[in-house]
Amino acid sequence: MHGKSPLVSLMLSVRALQKSYRSGPDRVSVLRGVDLDVAPGESVALTGESGSGKSTLLHLIAGLDAADAGEVRFGDTLISQLSDAGRAAFRRDHLGLVFQQFNLIPSLSVADNLAFQSRIAGRHDAAWQAELIERLGLGSLLKRYPEQLSGGQQQRVAIGRALAVKPLLLLADEPTGNLDEATADEVMSLSRDLVSRTGCGFLMVTHSARLAAMLDRRVHLHAGLIA
Amino acid sequence: MKRALWILAVLLSHWRRHPMQLATLLVGLISATALWSGVQALNQQARISYDRAASALGGARTATLVGSNGESLPQQIFVELRRAGWPVSPMLEGRIQIGGRSLRLLGVEPLSLPIEASAAPAIGTSGLQGFLSPPGQTLIAPDTLAELKAAAGDTPLTNTGLTLPPLTPQNESVPGLLVVDIGVAQRLLNMPEKISQLLLGQRDLGPRAPLASIAGGETLRLVEPDAETDLERLTDSFHLNLTAFGLLSFLVGLFIVNSAIGLAFEQRRPMLRTLRACGVSALQLNSVLIVELVGLALLAGLIGLVCGYFIAATLLPDVAASLRGLYGAQIPGELTLRPQWWAAGLAISVIGALGAASASLLKAIRLPVLAAAQPYAWQQAQQTALIVQGALALIVFAGGVGCLLLGDSLVAGFAVLAAILLGAALALPAVLGLVLLLSERVARKPLAKWFWADSRMQLSGLSLALMALLLALGVNVGVGTMVQSFSKTFTGWLDGRLAAEVYLNAASDAQAVEIKAWLRDRPEVQAVLPGSRAEAQLGGWPIDLIGFADHATYREQWPLLESSPGAWDLVARGEAALISEQLALRLKLKLGDRVAVPTPQGSWPLEVVAIYADYGNPRGQLGVAIAALVAHFPGIAQTRFGLRVTPAAVPALVTALREKFALDNRSLADQAALKAESRKIFNRTFAVTNALNAFTLGIAGVALLTSLLTLSQSRLPQLAPLWAIGITRRKLAVIELMKTLSVALITALLALPLGLVVAWCLIAVVNVKAFGWRLPFQVFPEQLVQLVGIAMLASLLAALLPILNLLRMQPAQLVKVFADER
Ligand SMILES: Nc1ncnc2c1ncn2[C@@H]1O[C@H](COP(=O)(O)OP(=O)(O)OP(=O)(O)O)[C@@H](O)[C@H]1O
Ligand SMILES: [Mg+2]
C-alpha cells in the first residue's frame, strides 16, 4: 500500500513521544516527550547512557511497539494510525533495521539472508544487490550460514539486508556494539557511504563518541528527552 | 502470493537445516495417519461386506412381514395380501446340509421381488428364464462354491438325499447363502405351501386394505428394515476394539508431532521475530505457518495412507479369520477402498497436525516482535506446567471414576480406559520429577547430585516421549495380561465344553442312523451323545439353541457359573434352559427368570436355571434338552453327536469311522484336534491386538529416539563445561546413557501398575460390556519382566545414536559453546 507512493522528500518527524513501562507495581517513564527529525540523506547519531531509552525510541519509530502519546510521522503517514499489517508493510517497504545482534535468520545462507526482505517487499534488484555484495565484501561468503561468520561479517550482512530494499530510513541499534574498533570503523564508513549513495536517512544508536562524530549530527537522550 | 511463497521459503529453510526434526515430525504424522487409517480400512472393509450381505437377497434392508411368533406362514397369505394391494413377495428361509456343511437356503419368487431388494441382477434380467424353468438354478457366491469343492453346474445332494438345482456362481451373492426359486426351497426344506416371511417393497400398488382385514393378517407382524444388521450389531464391539486401538496409536503419534512442532517453534522463535521486524505482518506470518503445517500434514498423510493400506492388507487375513471364526462374518481377503477413505485419512492427518500444533500456533500468534526484557523464567514455567498437568490428571481421573460409577455402556468402559491412560500420562512428569528430586536429595557425591539434577532439567524435553513410552507399555501390559488371563481361562473352559472324546457330523440323517447302529457294536464306545442346533431370535438378538442329551458328561463337566437346585432335571424335562453368560447379561436375565422362545411350533416357555460361560461366542446361547428341541423345531438336522470313548481307543476308532463312512476332517474330529482348532481361532483373534500393540511400542521407541536426538543438540551447553573441567567425552557419554536409561526404567516400572489397572479395566469393565463375559483376573510376572526388558532395550537403542554423536564430536564444537553466547 506504501510501495508505490512517492515518498522521496519524506522525512522522519517525531513529536512529543512518550513511553512508560510497568515495572512491578509502578510505572517507569522512559520517554517523556521526545522530538526528533531526520531529513532524507541525513545521518544522525543517537547517544545516551544505558537504559536511557534509545532502543525504545528506535522500536517506536519502526512501529515495533506502540507509544503512549505523541506521534511518529513519515511525510504524511502517521505510524500510530496504521494497523499491524500496515505497520508491517511500511517496515517491509521503507525501513531497514539493524540490531546489535541476532539480525540474521540462522537457517538461511548469506545470499538468502541478504535478499529475503527485498524479495518479500517485491522489489528485488539484482544489480543493486550485486553492488551491495561487492561493496560489503561478502562475495566469498554467500554460501555460508550465519553461524559460520564472524560478528563483523554478520553485521555487514545485516546492513546489506537492510539496504537491499533501498529504504527511506535506516535504523541501526548499536550495529557495531559487538565489534572491535577497526571492524567497527570499517562497518561504519561502509554504511555511511551506502546511505549517502541511496539518499536515505540514517539514525544510529551508539555509545561511542568517536563513531558519533563520523555522522552529520548527534543527538543525546537524557532523562526521557532529546537534548 | 509471491510474497507468501518467499515467506514460506524462509520458514522451510529451517527444516533444511534441521532434517532430523523434520523427520521426527513426519514420522509422527505418518505413523499416526497410517495406524488410524489402517484400522479404518479394516473396519470399512468389514462394513462394506456387512452392507453387501444386508442389501443382498435375504438381507435385512427391506421391511418384512413375519409371523408374530416367528412361525412359518401358509403360502395363501401371499395371495391375499397381493389382492389387498400390498407390494409383497414371499420368501422361505432355512438351513440345509451339504457334505456335512450347514448352509443358509433362501427361496425367492423373482417375479414379485421388490427391485430394491434384488441385488442379484442375474435373476432380474436375462437369467430369469434359466432361474425359473426346470431344472432351475442355485445362486451361490464363488467363495462358497470353492468351499464346497464343487464346480458350476454341479447338482449336489443334501443330507436328506434331495438334489439341488445346478449351482450357478454369482459375484453379488452373499457367501454361505444359496438362493433358489421358492418352489424348490419348499421341496428341499420339506415345507410345502409354506413361507417364512414376506418382503414388503416400496412400490405403491394403490390403496392397501389394513392388515387386520385380510384373512390371516392378524398373525402378521411388520418388521421395519434394520438400520443395523445382526452382523453389524454382533461385530460392533470387535470394531470398537479395533477403533480404540487405532485411536490410541493415533494419539501416541500426535504426541510425537506435538513435541517436534513445539521444539521447532522454540528454535524458530528468532527467525519469526526477524521476519516480523523486517515487515511481515502477524497475520501473514501465521497464515503461512498454517499453510506450511497443512502442506506437511498432507504430504505425511499421503505417505501415511500408503503405509496404512499396507498395515490393513497385512492384518486383513487375521481380522477376516477372527471375524469368520467368531461371528461367521464373511470378509473378502482383498482390500477395496473407497475414495472417502483417502479423503478421511488426509483430513485426519491435517486435523491431527493442527491439533498437535495448536499450542505452538497460539504462541506464534501472540509472539511479541520484541523479546521480553526479562529472561524467560524457564524453571518457573516448568514448575507451573507440572502443577497444571498434575491438576489436569486429577480431573481426568475423577472423570474416569465418574464414568465407572455412572456409565453402563461400552463407550463408558472405553472412557474409563482413556481416563486411566490420559491421567497417567499427564501425571507422569510430576511423578518422575518427584522421584528424581528425591534421588538428588539422597545422592552424596557431587557428580551423582548433578546426575539427578540434570536428569530433572532434561525432563521437560523428554516428558512427551516418556509419556508415549508409558502409554505404550501400559497398554501392552494391560492387553497382554488380559490375553493371558483369557488364554488360561479359555483352556480350562474348553476342557469342560469339549468333554466328549470324538465329535462326529454325518452327511445325512440316513447316514447318522447307520453310524449309530455301527457304533452300538463297538465296546470302546461308552456313550453316544446326540446334539442338535437351531436358530431363533430372543429380545431382538440372534441366538442359538443347542440341544444335548441328559448325560453325566454334561452334568459333571459343563462350565456352569451359577445354577439353581435341580437344574439338570428341569432341563431334561424340556421346561428349563441353561443360558450363556453373555445372553444373560444382554437380556438382564437371572436364575428363575422365564423366557419365551419363538419356534415354528409356537412360543416355547423356558425357565432360566443355570448360567454358563461361553467364551468367544457373540451369539447368545440356550442349552436345552435335545428331545424338546427336536419337538419344537421339526426337521432340524440330527446328524451331530459326541462319543465318549476310552481315550486309548480314540485313534483306532477315528480311523475305522473314517474308512467305513468316508468322513472327512470336518465331519469327524477328535477332542485334541477340536481344541487345537479353537485355540487357533482364539490366537488369530488376538493376533491383530498383538500387532497393534507392537506398533504402538515401536512408535513410542521412535518418539524416544527423536526426542533424544533433538535434545542432544540443545544439551551441548550443559555438557561442555563438564568436558572443560576434565571429564572425558567417553565418561560423559556413559553418564548421558545412564540418565536416559534411568528415567526410562522409572517410567517402565510406573507402567507396570498402570498396565495392571488397564488390564483390570479391560477384564472387568470393557470385556463385560463388549462381549458379555467376565474373566478371573490373573497376573503373569514373567510377562511383566519381559516387557520391562523390551522397553529398556528400545530405550537403549534410542539413546545410542545421540551418544555416538557425542563420542564422535570434535572438541571444536564443544569449544564453540563458549565462543558464542547463543
Ligand atoms: N519490555 C519492557 N518492559 C519493562 N521495561 C522495559 C522494557 N523494555 C525496556 N524497558 C526499560 O526501559 C528502559 C529503557 O530501555 P532501553 O532498552 O530503551 O534502553 P537503552 O537506552 O537501549 O539501553 P542500552 O544502551 O543498555 O541498550 C530500561 O530501564 C529498561 O529496563
Ligand atoms: Mg538498547
From TrEMBL, chain B:
Positions of the MacB-like periplasmic core domain: 464-623
Domain of life assignment: Bacteria
Membrane disposition: Multi-pass membrane protein
Domain ABC3 transporter permease C-terminal: 244-362, 692-811
Predominant localisation class: membrane
Family matches, as InterPro entries: ABC3_permease_C, MacB_PCD, Membrane_comp_ABC_pdt
Cellular localisation: Cell membrane
GO CC, alphabetical: plasma membrane
Record key words, sorted: Cell membrane, Membrane, Transmembrane, Transmembrane helix
Residues passing through the membrane, by range: 242-265, 285-312, 341-365, 386-407, 413-438, 459-479, 691-711, 740-765, 785-807
Keyword Transmembrane helix on entry: yes
PANTHER family: BLL1001 PROTEIN (PTHR30287:SF2), MEMBRANE COMPONENT OF PREDICTED ABC SUPERFAMILY METABOLITE UPTAKE TRANSPORTER (PTHR30287)
Protein name: Putative ABC transport system permease protein
Species of the source: Rhodopseudomonas rhenobacensis
